[in-house]
Amino acid sequence: MMPPSLERKDFYKRFLSSVATHLFALFIGLVGSIILARGLGPETRGIVSWLVAIGMITCGICLLGMDRVNRKFLAENPESTGWLIRKSLVAILKASAALSPFIFLITFRYAPENTSLLLLAAVIIAGVFLAMAESLCAALVGIHHAKGYNLANLLQKTIVTLGYGIFFLAKQLSALTAIIGLSLGILVKLLTALKIIKNINSGTQPLAKEAQKEWKAYGKTQYSISLLSIFASHALILLMGVFNVTASHIGYYTVAFVFIESSLIIPRTLAMYLVPWLAQMDEKQHKIAISEISVLMLLLMSLGAAILYLLSGWLVPLLFGQEFFTSILLLKLLCIGLPAYGLVTVSQAIIAAIHSNRTNLMLAAILCVSIIISSTLLIPIFGVYGAIYSWIITAIITSLFSLPVIFRRKSTA
């Protein structure tokens, strides 16, 4: 094993390189969000956000947690790269064929007014392709191919934004053309990741029998965690639809959350690289690395939240226009929970890396149950503001639970 100082240096080098690429992709994505908001207006933007949430949940359901599994097992078993990737893709396709029709039948009943069922079917199909793309991109991270992972994500953002821009300039931007642009970006991401992996001389040796049992057991737990996490990420938009919050208010919420999503790029990128990095460390090295990462994350996210809070009154109308003025207060409220949510994002990766599957499942369950209970109580009373309060409460509760857990003794449960 390499000396910890060299491993840390190599880790942060890859991480910073990935953040730089993500920041560029973030800029491209932000341009796309601005075009979408200005071209569609609050109401149609809200409908598109609801459709995208359905697509993301479809992705989470059909992905089977293979993104999390691949990051860990490919790092530990590079000789079985090809075998693991094939197994993952076959499992995703089988799940998609079985589950996609049920997702459509369940969700169309709660679609916002004026939502096309054709578009609902389209985003569910796009979600299936995204599941395969995410599995392949996670494999690239697992085999330490950061450049390939970054390229696939960057191309996706570029194609989506380019599509929005073309439709906007042609005065043809609508919910339909927005979903077309989004789907093209997902397809490019999938094909790019697939091509990169094909060009890698990957091992095709099957996992040993004992390792296969561990792979299946780990996969089942990670699937449960993935389902809970993906639902928690998009539950607020779905529940706002269930409780009849207007599409316009969902649009205001979406614009405010664009800034939060942008701020979360650092903890999410860090989380991607933590699993393969920490999986190779002993317990003493874990504690040093976790302490360092946790403090760094809290400082960065607190600073980001403060800057975003102060600039929100200027940024929102400048980028998205005066018709999204309501988003300013929503964004200021969201900044309160941003440091806590950043810590939760990193904590989930830390717990996954040290094999604490039950603990990680419990953390995801707390996140999901908290957001469901709080939003069910608050959204009917406060509308879109109730969704914001629910997000803040959930972030704080989950971070308070996760912080002491990540410093506990390494577990293989």
Verbal overview:
By secondary structure, this protein is mainly α. It has one domain. Helices cover 85% and strands 0% of the residues. The protein contains 13 helices and no strands.
SSE diagram, text form:
Layout: H1 4-63, H2 66-76, H3 81-107, H4 117-142, H5 146-169, H6 175-198, H7 209-242, H8 247-263, H9 265-278, H10 283-320, H11 327-353, H12 357-382, H13 384-405
- Give the helix/strand class: mainly alpha
| Gross morphology | globular
Quaternary status: single chain
Total number of helical segments? 13
**Number of E-type strands:** 0
Characterize the main sheet: none
Number of domains: 1
Distance between the termini: 25 Å
Helix content: over 70%
Sheet-strand content, in percent, reads under 5%
Rg over CA atoms:
20 Å
Average pLDDT score: 82
List the secondary-structure elements in sequence, H or E.
HHHHHHHHHHHHH
Ranges where pLDDT stays below 50 over 5 or more residues in a row are: 1-6
